[in-house]
Amino acid sequence: MDNNTMQKIISLSKRRGFIFPSSEIYGGIEGFWDYGPLGSLLKNNIKKLWLENFVQKRKDIVLIDGSVIMNTKVWQASGHLSAGFADELVECKKCKKRFRFDHMEELKGKEFEKNWRKCPECGEIIKEIPRKFNLMLKTFVGAIEDDASRAYLRPETAQSMFTNFKNVLNSSRMKLPFGIAQIGKSFRNEINTGNFIFRSREFEIAEIEYFTNPKDDEKFFDLWFKEWNDFILKLGVKKGNLREKEHKKEDLAHYSKRTTDIEYNFPFGWSELAGVANRTDFDLKQHSEFSGESLKYLEEEGGKEFFPYVIEPTIGIDRLFLTILADAYSEISGGRAGEKSNTKQEAEVVLKLHKKLAPITVAVLPLVKNKKEITKKSEQVYDLLRNYFVVQYDETGSIGRRYRRQDEIGTPYCVTIDFDTLEDDTVTVRDRDTMKQEERVKISELPEKIQKYLND
After folding, report:
1. Which among 11, 31, 230, 456 could disulfide-bond with 201, CB atoms 3.0 to 4.6 Å apart, if both were Cys?
2. 294-310 pLDDT tens trace
3. Exposed/middle/buried for 45, CB within 10 Å: 0-12, 13-18, 19+?
4. Measured between alpha carbons, how far is 298 from 289 in angstroms, rounded to an integer?
């Protein structure tokens, strides 16, 4: 894949209602995006499968939903208000744009100093020394905007899982090892956003803080890395487009003993999609010290008290969304097997989404719209199926063009109501990937049949 593919994905996303630029009628706002009708459904399907996999089907993980704004002392304890949670920033004196120092091209040679970089915008040589720029987004709580009322939008979801560690223990009676899961919005005042929704200032994270005895940390690190990788593959992402990247010791975050990323081969190159970190007992110790509240775990047998270690698997929902779009995007030239194409010169776009992720599961298509008996029967089929699935009704244009539209948004199945339906109450079911529509199905059996297709 390449950036041409990326532009096609961005165009498709807006044209078909997956993603829109936020506040577009006012010129937009950099680093913020709105999910449209199809994008919202796809995003919710991703989250639904994540919750099903890591909360519903497990007895060792509970779910919470923490607030976006927390007491400022939380961020002092976590280290987010220190220089550690900051990017190095430089400003081009010519075009007045600011850039992350580590994202810029280093100029090498005897005539260049160590910290000189070339401006990505105008090409000017930037000679100034980079300065620290904190990524926290500030706000104020209350009527008066002063230092006492200053607060921050959370830059990660993890801290509410640590501050609620004791509450979860007391209310849920969990025992080690166990995890606290959460999906939620986070905010970072990124210097440079880009690559569509890959790097935004508002984004959604799904992660687990898995608490374990310190002696078992490596075992659970390996286990969770496999679980995380398997989940991504389960969503239909091609194995060849994934790789792992172990962080070097000098690149680890201040809280981490070990971190390994899962990278995806995006149209713009290999970049981080997800990761697993061993946060040791850093967070529970910090919050115990800053709050004065003991967050140690007391073993029932032996009465030993200690701070658990934490294994943290994390994945960005927006990045996973982009991964799924990029991985499912395909073009077929010269028409589809068994069907006539009206656009011989134009490649046909097919989103080969995992069938349980597709925003629309079934499209109901009357063969013609000018015969009342067929459209009436089609509406009855639509009313039946929408009790079980997300369904779209479409009667505009030729049947071939309507198939194309559904292929482009990744709809797995199209149900066509034709003249034979009026005689025997059966319909054809067309599969997006195989293009087969040979089997006729009784209308009364459609929900069960489509569910079987999905499960297969």
Report:
1. 31
2. 999 999 887 899 999 99
3. buried
4. 18
CATH number for the region 3-68+137-326 comes to: 3.30.930.10
**CA–CA separation, 419 vs 378, rounded Å?**
11
Closest CA to 211 of 156, 123, 279: 279
Class of residue 161 by CB neighbours under 10 A (exposed 0-12, middle 13-18, buried 19+): buried
Domain spanning 353-455, CATH architecture: 3-Layer(aba) Sandwich (3.40)
- The strand pairing partners of 151, in sequence order, are 139
**Helical (H) or strand (E) element with 14:** helix 3-15
**Domain parsing of the chain, residue ranges:** 3-68+137-326, 86-134, 353-455
What is the three-class DSSP state of 44? helix
Closest CA to 159 of 290, 321, 272, 11: 290
Q: For 161-189, write each residue's pLDDT tens digit.
A: 999 999 999 999 899 999 999 999 999 98
First to last CA, the chain: 29
